[in-house]
Amino acid sequence: LFKSLTILSFDGNQFIGTLPSELGLLTSLTSLSVAENLFSGTLPSELSLLASLTYLSVSSNQFAGTIPTELGLLTSLTQLRVYDNGFTGTLPSQLGLLKSLWGIGVDYNQFTGTLLSELGFLTSLSHLTVNDNQFTGTVPSELGNLTSLTYLDISKNQFTGTFPSQMKRYLELSELSLSNNNFVGTLPSWIGDLKDMTSLRLNHNNFNGTLPPELGNLISLTSLGISHNEFSGTFPAWIGSLENLSWLWLEDNQFTGSFPSEVQQNLDLKHICLFNNNFTSLPEGIENYSPYFCS
């Protein structure tokens, strides 16, 4: 009856139970979304029969188990959204076959293991979110091939190593979050080459050293989060040249000296967090900034 159906959406209801395997019979589907329901169980491998599918979202449900390897057969997919579920295990290497993908969201699950190196084959990706999982190890060097990325969030995992050098190739990147991991070392000078950056979040890691002056090249930045690290030295006055900056998180580092007056004079900051440093003086009127937005 519905074999000619091309778009099917159950979004925003209260459906329960498992996803029926018979969905695989709707072979004309180009878009399937069951987001924001109460579906549970595992994803049926029969979804791989939907060869024309370009959009698949099962986000914000109660799905569990692993991602079926058969999804690697959906080579027409441009968007895959499985975020906000209870998926476990490692990401299947077959995802690297989905070379038409420009958006993947696997965040807010319980995925483990190292991040899939085969993601480096997906050179059309512009949006990648793997945050709020249990990924470990270093960021694969193969991800340096993702030069079209504009949005990358790998926060709230257990990644290790230094600031990933492959990211120097992300010249179109607008938003980057490495927060809440176990990264170490200093910030690279090439970070100043990522001139489209509007949001940089490095909070809750073990970065150290002084801030590279090249950060001052990121004139489009609206938010900068470097709190809960081990940064040291005087806080640079050139931050005051980032005229679009409105959010600044610096708390719980080892900055010393006077907080530069240029920052307060030149910027229209809406939120600033400075506590737990070694500043000898703070901006006039700091009490007017709300502490509730500190990270």
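That was protein one. Protein two is written in the same sequence-then-structure order:
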Amino acid sequence: MEHRFTFACALQRQYPPTLSTLNHLTMQQIISLLSIFAVAAHAATYDLPPLPFGLSALKPMISKNTLQIHHGKHHAKYVDTLNSLVAGTHLENQPLESIIKESYKSNKSIFNNAAQAWNHSFYWQCMKPKGGGTPDESSHKQLCDKINASFGSYANFRKQFAEAANTAFGSGWAWLVSDRKGNLSVTKTIGAENPMVASGKLIPILTCDVWEHAYYLDYANLRPSYVDTFLEKLVNWEFVAENLERAMDSGRNWSC
């Protein structure tokens, strides 16, 4: 009886609102209650990251309503579904990148939700208020040099990136990717796929989400207008430059 009372008091201190009558429970009831808490503790292996800006920070380019639905509903759903799919498996608590690579050919449901969780987290960081336009050479010389070396000019890069974004059939993503030497190229993926699985050794340094939920409330079916706005007024070149630096440093692990 003494052990049960001590055990109950310890739980009651941790969960006072729900366990106010704990001393009246049997040991079996306490064990059952503990199992519920254990499940709840494992239910959020991966968390929905907060936006790196306020819900109204990107207006009028991207509305508060779009961000509330895109981040609070779509992105959140990918994270919640991923947690439920990996719970109790060997993938639980693994790095998101590892789950993406391992599940790509073995479990499409896990892959889709893991990749979409990662893609969206990366996408939010690719934008900032008062961003976009040509990157500042004085602040991002290495990035500007690599863009010029790989594409001939920023204008050529912009044209290729916009074309990739606008021609991704259905739902997908446009990417600026780098190899370990800083050679840049533009690619696009369909659905949840990203360069980690679609292109092997190429590393994403910028992305634009062209799923309709990213832009339809603000631009209707005018995807090219959304893509132009993304490039001209939203791109976070500081984040892109940091990603390029990581990509070129083969001695460091890379992640979003």
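Residues 1-22, 31-43 have pLDDT under 50 and may be disordered. Keep this in mind for the problem set.
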